[in-house]
Design brief:
Its cofactor is Mg(2+). With 209 residues, the chain is of the alpha/beta class. The protein has 6 helices and 7 strands; from the N terminus they run H-E-H-E-H-E-E-H-E-E-E-H-H. Strands 1, 2, 3, 4, 5, 6 and 7 form a 7-stranded mixed sheet that branches. The radius of gyration is 17 Å and the shape is globular. Bound molecules: inosine 5'-triphosphate and magnesium ion.
């Protein structure tokens, strides 16, 4: 944490415990808390505040991140950071994309979601590209209604069967370009060195902090 004298103006507005992470996904909340670690901000999650999970009616990652952040800022009276993210598989026309969470069904079973990706890819034939990328849109909403957003990306290929149990969601099938282990096999610090979420986060830090 920076000393009082060199703490940038914006971070002083984000007093410890005063930034809502507008997400109900424990894996994301953990990663965002880790990424916020160096900035002296102690986040509180939407779940801890009993905030409702809004319907994601947007047609883009940014629109969904904005609606989640704005609702949390509005209901809590605190600055709120939301993340809308997903896996885009090029041979599937970038599906599941914004529907990545919905492919896991009401039980939020990502084994089912990963199997669906693999099945749909198999349906494209053996020559189909296995290229994929993750996108992360971060939206930071202030209680006065002002919103800023940032979008990050990481490119890779899909493996089958799934490998590793360290991450969440689609991590076990995502092999980032230039790496020999999946996100599911990676220590969190290594994932933060290259992930879509860390990419968006770097842009946010450069702009805000
Ligand atoms: O909306 P919130 O409450 O934040 O939680 P969610 O899980 O519904 O989140 P999204 O609507 O943004 O859906 C994105 C899905 O994409 C997947 N995803 C996003 N980032 C990922 C990552 O870093 N690793 C693996 N899967 C990821 C993950 O399974 C998410 O459920
Ligand atoms: Mg969601």
């Amino acid at each position: 944490m920076s000393g009082e004298g060199d703490t940038p103006q914006a971070i002083r507005k984000l007093q410890p415990g005063k930034l809502v992470i507008a997400s109900h996904n424990k894996g994301k909340v953990r990663e965002i808390a880790e990424l916020l670690g160096p900035y002296g901000v102690t986040p509180v999650s939407a779940g801890e505040l009993d905030l409702p999970e809004p319907e994601e009616t947007g047609t883009t990652f940014v629109a969904n991140a904005e609606l989640k952040a704005m609702q949390a800022a509005d209901l809590s009276g605190l600055p709120a950071l939301a993340d809308d993210s997903g896996l885009c598989v090029e041979a599937l026309g970038n599906d599941p994309g914004i529907f990545s969470a919905r492919w896991a069904g009401p039980e939020k079973d990502f084994r089912v979601a990963m199997e669906r990706v693999e099945r749909e890819l198999a349906g494209k034939g053996p020559e189909a590209s296995r290229d994929a990328h993750f996108i992360c849109a971060l939206a930071l909403a202030w209680p006065d209604g002002h919103v800023e957003w940032f979008e990050g990306r990481v490119d890779g290929t899909l493996v089958w069967p799934p490998r590793g149990d360290k991450g969440f969601g689609y991590d076990p099938v995502f092999l980032p370009n230039g790496e020999d282990i999946t996100f599911g096999e990676m220590a969190p610090e290594r994932k933060h060195g290259m992930s879509h979420r860390a990419d968006a986060f770097r842009q946010m830090v450069a702009a805000i902090f």
